[in-house]
Design goal:
By secondary structure, this protein is of the alpha/beta class. The protein has three domains: 169 residues, Serine Threonine Protein Phosphatase 5, Tetratricopeptide repeat, CATH 1.25.40; 174 residues, Rossmann fold (3-Layer(aba) Sandwich); 182 residues, Helicase, Ruva Protein, domain 3 (Orthogonal Bundle), CATH 1.10.8.60. Helices cover 51% and strands 8% of the residues. The strands form five sheets. A five-stranded parallel beta sheet has the order 2-5-8-1-9, with helices on one face. A three-stranded antiparallel beta sheet has the order 12-14-13. α18 crosses α20 and α24 crosses α25. It is globular and about 90 Å long. The protein starts with a helix and ends with a strand.
Length: 564
């Protein structure tokens, strides 16, 4: 009897929580209306309503304060984090900080995985970057997924906080969807997978010439034409979804849908619903029949990520699917044949899981017949330079800007073990591009080694620093030499004894020409010591000649602008 009361109370509590969430979605931000439910419910939704209230007003400081409270507290019922995590992103976009918005979106995806709503924020970032075609593509993908999950109300809710978007932007995106070709399939993972080069297909997606990656390419070609399931294993961040797409695109049904789902992010009942589908009336809210992913994929490919996390009950259900190619919709009494190819991936040691009785032995042996083991990045260090070149290239830019790393920085990155593998490397290169968007040649001082666990910036001797500076000077863009402040002039000025007045007058001339300079750029161009440059910059700021800008907390991102 006591157990029944607990279940009943839990059901009532859940109902109150969802009612509160619906109030938030209906833009009721009055904290007085969230005084029902248990103590945690009341506290949570009071903070939650304040966060969205200040977000609605565009008050960044207060909105961030309350969203941080939501994030830091260890709530037992963390049911609405999918809403709260986007508050800082809304604010950065509202302030038109496209660089910080990209970093935030990457951090959200890295921490919580990809979500169909990410395309909404990606489209907004692309609009700020003047990438209209990219925005249209992202928004088209968003609408496909919104329709798929019947989530239009959620999109309307988020749209109301898109402070930087004009009505004309929304009309542009909506009208363009009508003319855009319909996407082949809407996947649960909305964005392109990590490490993609959209212009390449199949094994061309796999970057590198190491022996291990060559072997992976060979297996992809061989397994692509098989109807049997394929298993991909490897550490997190090694590119398992990328390889699964390569298998799909090398196969005979590359034009059919590729549908991906993260098994670890869904409850057992929701995963079953997504995979198998259901008939009308199967459960409360099932108003019409809905195909599952296995059936919707047709002759295409279904990619099951984090497969090792599925429950024992789902293991039994999926073993039957693999053996018979049959499924049964939830609530139905008949089976249906499926034709899709199934690719599964996991970063777990399934052989160990079998020995510990956590994974079915028969399912493991059914999958392990055709498996691909992806090597960690530390075992294919010779591919790091090619991967860096790929990530540093502005793929969306018609000019294809190619940034380069100094030899010292490249060697330091190759020596690092990269526990996050290619995903970690990609994120660091994307960060480097954003924080140093004005530079094409990147040196050790441009990279924040404190972000890499166990890595330290190498110590370079003074003679080597001068050599790097000379190498950089020879590699600068031609426009530097077109300026009146050329290298010859620099030498003459500082050969006259480097008096304070002469030096500061010259630095002011540099700012008048460039408008924006970093401390490292001034050191490279003038051969002055770092301490001297720091003192002069501080003096300029005190006199009101320049202003220091700090776009991020990293000291590497600071720069100085001339005050008009």
């Amino acid at each position: 009897m006591e157990q029944y009361k607990n279940i009943k109370n839990a059901g009532i509590g859940l109902k109150i929580s969802f009612e509160n969430l619906l109030r938030i979605l209906s833009r009721d931000f009055d904290e007085k209306n969230y005084q029902i439910g248990d103590t945690e419910d009341q506290e949570y939704f009071k903070i939650y309503s304040k966060a969205y209230y200040f977000l609605d007003l565009g008050n960044k400081i207060e909105a961030i304060k309350y969203s941080e409270l939501l994030r830091k507290n260890k709530w037992q019922k963390n049911f609405s984090k999918q809403f709260a995590k986007y508050i800082p992103l809304h604010l950065e976009l509202g302030l038109r900080n496209k660089g910080m918005a990209r970093l935030l979106l990457q951090e959200i995806q890295q921490k919580d995985g990809e979500h169909y709503l990410d395309d909404f924020f990606l489209a907004r970032i692309q609009l700020l970057e003047k990438d209209t075609n990219g925005a249209i593509e992202s928004f088209s993908r968003l609408i496909e997924n919104v329709n798929r999950y019947e989530a239009m109300n959620r999109l309307i809710f988020e749209l109301k906080f898109a402070k930087e978007m004009q009505a004309s932007d929304i009309l542009l995106l909506m009208n363009s969807i009508k003319d855009a070709p319909k996407l082949k399939a809407a996947t649960i993972k909305s964005n392109q997978p990590l490490f993609l080069n959209p212009s390449n297909k199949g094994i061309k997606r796999l970057i590198g010439n190491s022996q291990s990656i060559i072997q992976v390419k060979k297996l992809v070609k061989k397994f692509a034409n098989l109807k049997d399931p394929v298993m991909i294993t490897g550490e997190t961040g090694t590119g398992k979804e990328l390889v699964s797409r390569a298998i799909h695109e090398e196969g005979p049904f590359a034009q059919e849908p590729f549908l991906a789902i993260n098994c670890g992010s869904l409850t057992e009942s929701l995963l079953q619903s997504e995979l198998f589908g259901y008939v009308a009336g199967a459960f409360t809210g099932a108003q019409k029949e809905r195909k599952g992913i296995f059936e919707a994929a047709g002759k295409g490919t279904v990619f099951l990520d984090e497969f090792g996390d599925i429950s024992p009950k789902m293991q039994v259900s999926l073993l039957r699917v693999l053996e018979s190619n049959e499924i049964r919709l939830i609530g139905d009494t008949k089976t249906r044949q499926i034709e899709c190819k199934i690719v599964v991936a996991t970063n777990l040691d399934l052989k160990k899981a079998v020995s510990e009785k956590k994974f079915r032995e028969d399912l493991y042996f059914r999958l392990s017949r055709f498996d691909i083991l992806l090597p960690p990045l530390r075992e294919r260090a010779e591919d790091i330079s090619k991967l860096i070149d790929h990530f540093l290239t502005d793929q969306g830019n018609s000019n294809g800007i190619q940034r380069r790393l100094s030899k010292e920085l490249l060697e330091s990155l190759k020596a690092y073990r990269w526990p996050g593998n290619i995903r970690e490397l990609k994120n660091e290169m994307e960060r480097l591009k954003i924080l140093h968007s004005d530079k094409e040649f990147l040196n050790i001082e441009d990279f924040d080694f404190s972000r890499l666990p166990g890595a330290h910036a190498p110590i370079i001797k003074e003679e080597k620093v001068k050599e790097i500076i000379k190498t950089q000077a020879s590699n600068l863009k031609p426009k530097i030499h077109e300026l009146s402040v050329d290298d010859t002039h620099i030498v003459k000025v500082f050969q006259r004894g480097s008096k304070i007045e002469v030096r500061q007058r010259f630095l002011k001339e540099l700012f008048q020409k460039y408008k924006k300079l970093t401390r490292s750029q001034i050191i490279e161009m003038t051969f002055l010591s770092p301490s001297t440059v720091s003192k002069d910059l501080q003096n300029f700021c005190n006199l009101g000649i320049t202003e220091k800008r700090t776009p991020t907390k990293s000291v590497k991102s600071h720069y100085f602008v001339l005050r008009e």
